[in-house]
Write a structure and sequence with these properties.
single chain, mainly alpha, two-stranded antiparallel sheet, two-stranded antiparallel ribbon, globular, disordered C terminus
Amino acid sequence: MYKINIKNFFEKNFISILCILVLVFCNVFSEYKEASILSIIVFIVYLKSNDITLYIKYLAFAFMMFSAIAGTVVIEFYKLYLNELETYSCYVGSIPLLVLSYQILFMVFNLFENCKKLNISNISTEKLDKSYYFIIKFGTIITFIIYLIMFLSVIENAAFLLNIDRFVYASRFKKSSIVGILTNLSVNFSLFPLLSILYGKKVWGWVTICLYILYCVWVGNKFGPFFTILCVFCLVYYNKVKEQGKKKILKSVSLIIIAFIFLIIVSIIISNFTSKNNADFIFQRTAQQGQEWWKTYDICKGTMHPMEFKEEVNAIIRGNKNVVENIGSKNGIYRIMYLTAPTAKVNFKLSTGSLYTEAGFASAYYYFGFLGNIIFAMVMGIIIAVTFNGFVQALNNQDIIKMLIFLRFFQLERSSFSMFTFYDMFDVVSIVSYFILIVSYRKNIKLFFDVGKKKLGISLKTR
């Protein structure tokens, strides 16, 4: 059970609360450029007030925050043609509310960091449960085999040699049903080699991860899967980072920044095969992170559409997960795409299995205006924080099944937050996962693989 020291929270977050008050003021006068400039300054002050390990733990959402705000700043202050929206950018005053929304999200994360101590401690290899350690080694070998099967299935056709992106590649070279299932689960399987690296089996772990990266490059990925692996890596290593001194933390951050820059360079190099202008690619990609928010704010400023929220419920019931199946849909990111871009262009985009980026806050604003953003940031902040802290606790308790469950929820919540689509959170696998977590926490049960002399199976043991 989470116990929060409210007094301690306010004492530690005085600067953050003051920043929120200033941002609310900026929102009142958002039509003035000075308000947006002030909100950017406040945003920088807020970033410096946080413990840097918070950004390591929530790296995926920190990246969303930086990229969305940077993209919106580019659009608001520089006139450029937005290819995907087929319009020119201009100042509309959308920056203060976006900054406020992300600051509230990270304040919720901080609130959970001030909860009763989450039993964060390093566990050496000698202290590992033998069955747990065996499963990590066995799981890493199985994961290596799975990644090898995935790579061998595409080895004859390299996307970068064919000058095509991942969407064209996927449409031209269809995967078998088995390879498709393995690919969908590939990030979850990465837990085993990452744990192997954490507990000393670095060679097997790194070879397996590198094989997965090679596969992703081969099928035309530029950034997404590599960054996802980096985020999972940071989450797995969060314990070690948290216990390090200031110098070692800065070293860890430096390594993450280097890895991040490397991913960007790889993305640019790969894009060279599919794009004629790398400078245009970088500039457009930056703007794309904020264009849906910017255009939705411009269209809907001062208006709300709460009665249309029923489409989100209908979407959950329909459960159309395939992008192509959502041509003409009026929920989440699909609604925002049709709202902000020409219909024909959106239809073509969806037909290729591709989406625009970052429509979470745009959708919340479309339905419920200013309060929609605040509520969405708070609710998603609570859900995400519970998932991340649940993963950390499962890691400390050597509970492999719960780690896999929380890792899957991390991926779903990341999509839900950025796209405002929630059907995956209510599918059969998610419902079963909720049931397992509720039962295990209520009964104080640990779920793990029991490897004994007699059998290999799943057992329940009381902590």
